[in-house]
Amino acid sequence: MLQHIRIVLVQTFHPGNIGAAARAMKTMGLTELVLVNPRLFPDEEATRLAAGAADVLESARVVSSLDEAVNDCVQVVGASARLRSLPLPHFDEPDAMAADVIQNAQTAPVALVFGRERSGLTNDEIRCCTHQVSIPANPDYGILNLSQAVQILAYEVHRAWRKGEASGFAYQRPLDATPPSREQFMHFQSHLGRLMQQSGFLTQPHARTEEQLQALFARAQPSRKELSLLRGLLSAFESHLPEQ
Ligand code: SAH
């Protein structure tokens, strides 16, 4: 199950942080590392700080957008020290995030996403996420080093996994409660967006309204089955629109 948990680092500036993140992952049994546009990689400094986790670096995938890194994931958790304006479901405690992630990782890939050292994640990147998590810290200085943030969240995930193993409790979720992949969710969102335009509900490009509805559906966390019901509903409405 831990192999379903992917760590995604967005546009890392210092290659040493990539190495230290790989080490943090391996100590917690995580191996899936995806790098979105790293400034320098591969790099000696990354290899040096990875120490015994060079294998995690070697198998790391480099991609050119966050979309590409998380499209197949059923849950995408953005780690951020600050609350953003987008009202995504938010985990205030990493252990609550870890319990949820471990449950989803039973059946499908999930991602934990970390931002740039200087500027974190952009709003567009947060929009790729289904959830956010913050590591509670000193209110006067609560921003952790990137690889240390990876360490803490990886530790929590490993701990939640260990607890499940030790109790012999197998997380079970009915098949039709499986969450949709991000790609399926995106198709729904664009179908909804299209229909809002065509039906005259949106008379001008009104990013805010669309965004609010997107956040609503993200919070609702529909299952795959529920999402396909919603799509069926949209198609039924669509068939009553006058020809354009
Ligand atoms: N100045 C940036 C900080 C970036 S730190 C900002 O304001 O967002 C680099 C990354 O480490 C962040 O993007 C986030 O993914 C992670 N991180 C650092 N501190 C964190 C915290 N307290 N909680 C959750 N993630 C944190």
UniProtKB/TrEMBL annotation:
Keyword tRNA processing in annotation: yes
Enzyme class at the top of the EC tree: transferase
Cell location: Cytoplasm
Tree of life domain: Bacteria
Keywords: Cytoplasm, Methyltransferase, S-adenosyl-L-methionine, Transferase, tRNA processing
GO cellular component: cytosol
InterPro entries referenced in this protein's UniProt entry, alphabetically: Alpha/beta_knot_MTases (IPR029028), RNA_MeTrfase_TrmJ/LasT (IPR004384), SpoU_MeTrfase (IPR001537), tRNA_m1G_MTases_N (IPR029026)
GO molecular function: RNA binding; tRNA (cytidine(32)-2'-O)-methyltransferase activity; tRNA (cytidine(32)/uridine(32)-2'-O)-methyltransferase activity
GO biological process per UniProt: tRNA nucleoside ribose methylation
Reactions that this protein is recorded to catalyse: cytidine(32) in tRNA + S-adenosyl-L-methionine = 2'-O-methylcytidine(32) in tRNA + S-adenosyl-L-homocysteine + H(+); uridine(32) in tRNA + S-adenosyl-L-methionine = 2'-O-methyluridine(32) in tRNA + S-adenosyl-L-homocysteine + H(+)
Pfam families linked to this entry: SpoU_methylase
Domain tRNA/rRNA methyltransferase SpoU type: 5-155
EC number(s) from the headed UniProt entry: 2.1.1.200
Primary role: Catalyzes the formation of 2'O-methylated cytidine (Cm32) or 2'O-methylated uridine (Um32) at position 32 in tRNA.
Subunit structure: Homodimer.
Family to which this protein belongs: Belongs to the class IV-like SAM-binding methyltransferase superfamily. RNA methyltransferase TrmH family.
NCBIfam families: rRNA_methyl_1 (TIGR00050)
Protein name: tRNA (cytidine/uridine-2'-O-)-methyltransferase TrmJ
Source organism of the structure: Halovibrio variabilis
Gene that encodes the chain: trmJ_1
